């Protein structure tokens, strides 16, 4: 049996557009991201190739294009005109090349690929790996089950909101808003990504002001509303702020994952005793062009390996660019099996209110999610409590298979939401 046949591998699926034929560019990528380079060198012996070179598993040709999706000086200098080939290719990489190292895993499956001159489009579509390999990464410590246990919310979505204004509130003003939200029996509250540890109001002051409010309502409700404190910062700061939240009795921390980075989030995960709420701000820069970056299917798997417990997926009919089907596909990906790694709870937010609930439930057939509404709760004409109630009533209708209009006939908070916000 050859070494290649016996070695353990992980696989990556790509969309590729190139002036080269798919079979050729696939081999270029396999070599570039493992043992080879742009020309054959004496050190790349047959034995080394057998042990360490990536291999092309599959090529599925797609209709070509006459214009490149992305600019390439390499192509221009060579005067390439005519057909640019497109394909989906799958490449398998030896696990022994990487080990349980997320930054090197990323460098291997993406790395210089986006820079290759022959490439005029490249997107990481998906990845898979053996369970034995995936188990070497931290993975989510709490996942959906642990989040529900800590929040005391079972059998329905977690209804939540975001502290607004996003920046500028004092710790005391934040605590007053949290008190109003908790008085409405809300399940989940999160900091905005723009506030972490600002000089005008340090992180510790926010925790000290908010936690007594949460404890007061925990005594009343028999469960503590979950508050995700944004501790994004340096690794030392994140660890210190995590400990501040833990010691104060908090139950969740939040990180802007793209900016804290894989190594930072993984380090936090190995230290953390609380669920990690993953905010993906900046995600559009990695995915918005269809011929560049990452699909969410691949992206969420990488963050699952790093150990986040919740991950944002945008919202239906939101203020952002993403189509509803893409948002739903992202949520499905978070809940789907992956190499034995626990699921992450998808977080719907941005322009959300009661009316999206039926479509979300019909498409997902799951209530294992967070549905966060800012204006849809705080902006309800009858107040915050009616806003929270309207969200729960909408989900009750969705799960029961009832239309919002018929349910609203006997549920005034939902009726007022429908009349005030309007059906979009």
What spatial order of strands do you see in the largest sheet? 5-6-7-8-9-11-12-13
Integer-rounded radius of gyration: 24 Å
Number of separate helices:
19
Rounded mean pLDDT score: 94
Derived from helix and strand composition plus strand pairing, the structural class reads alpha/beta
Give the strand tally: 13
Largest sheet: 8 strands, parallel, barrel
Helix amount, in percent?
A: 40-55%
Determine the strand fraction and express it as a percent band.
15-25%
Distance between the termini: 61 Å
> Which residues form runs of ≥5 with pLDDT under 50?
none
Instruction: Sum up the overall morphology in one term.
Output: globular
Describe this protein's structure:
This protein is an alpha/beta fold and 424 residues long. The protein has 19 helices and 13 strands. It has helices at residues 3-6, 22-32, 46-52, 73-77, 102-109, 131-134, 143-151, 171-183, 203-221, 235-248, 257-271, 284-287, 296-306, 324-335, 357-364, 375-378, 384-400, 404-408, 412-421; strands at 9-18, 55-65, 84-94, 119-128, 158-162, 188-190, 226-230, 253-256, 276-279, 292-294, 310-312, 345-348, 370-372. An 8-stranded parallel beta barrel has the order 5-6-7-8-9-11-12-13, surrounded by 4 helices. Strands 2-3-1-4-10 form a 5-stranded mixed beta sheet. Helix 9 (203-221) links the parallel strand 6 (188-190) and strand 7 (226-230).
């Amino acid at each position: 049996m050859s070494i290649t046949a016996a070695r353990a591998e992980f696989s990556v699926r790509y969309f590729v557009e190139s002036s080269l034929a798919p079979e050729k560019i696939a081999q270029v990528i396999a070599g570039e991201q493992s043992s080879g380079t742009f020309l054959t060198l004496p050190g790349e012996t047959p034995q080394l190739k057998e042990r360490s070179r990536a291999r092309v598993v599959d090529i599925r040709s797609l209709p070509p294009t006459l214009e490149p999706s992305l600019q390439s000086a390499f192509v221009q200098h060579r005067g390439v005109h005519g057909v640019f080939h497109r394909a989906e290719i799958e490449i398998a990489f030896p696990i022994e090349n990487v080990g349980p190292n997320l930054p090197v895993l990323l460098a291997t499956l993406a790395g210089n690929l986006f820079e290759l001159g022959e490439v005029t489009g490249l997107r990481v579509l998906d990845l898979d790996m053996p369970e034995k390999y995936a188990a070497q990464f931290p993975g989510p410590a709490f996942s959906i089950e642990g989040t529900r246990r800590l929040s005391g919310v079972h059998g329905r979505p977690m209804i939540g909101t975001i502290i607004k204004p996003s920046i500028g509130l004092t710790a005391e003003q934040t605590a007053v808003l949290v008190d109003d939200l908790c008085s409405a029996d809300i399940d989940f509250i999160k900091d905005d990504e723009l506030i972490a540890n600002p000089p005008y109001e340090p992180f510790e002051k926010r925790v000290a002001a908010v936690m007594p409010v949460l404890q007061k309502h925990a005594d009343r409700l028999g469960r503590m509303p979950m508050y995700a404190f944004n501790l994004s910062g340096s690794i030392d700061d994140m660890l210190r702020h995590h400990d501040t939240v833990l010691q104060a009795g908090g139950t969740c921390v939040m990180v802007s994952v793209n900016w804290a980075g894989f190594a930072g989030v993984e380090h936090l995960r190995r230290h953390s005793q609380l669920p990690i709420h993953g905010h993906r701000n900046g995600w559009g820069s990695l995915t918005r062009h269809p011929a560049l970056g990452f699909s969410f299917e691949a992206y969420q798997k990488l963050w699952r390996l790093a150990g986040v417990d919740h991950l944002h997926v945008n919202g239906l009919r939101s203020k952002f660019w993403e189509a509803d089907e893409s948002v739903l596909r992202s949520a499905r990906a978070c809940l789907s099996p992956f190499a034995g790694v626990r699921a992450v709870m998808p977080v719907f937010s941005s322009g959300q209110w009661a009316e999206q609930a039926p479509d979300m439930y019909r498409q997902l057939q799951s209530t294992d999610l967070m549905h966060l509404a800012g204006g849809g709760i705080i902006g309800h004409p009858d107040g915050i409590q009616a806003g929270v109630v309207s969200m729960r009533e909408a989900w009750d209708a969705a799960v029961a298979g009832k239309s919002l209009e018929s349910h609203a006939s006997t549920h005034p908070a939902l009726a007022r939401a429908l009349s005030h916000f309007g059906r979009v």
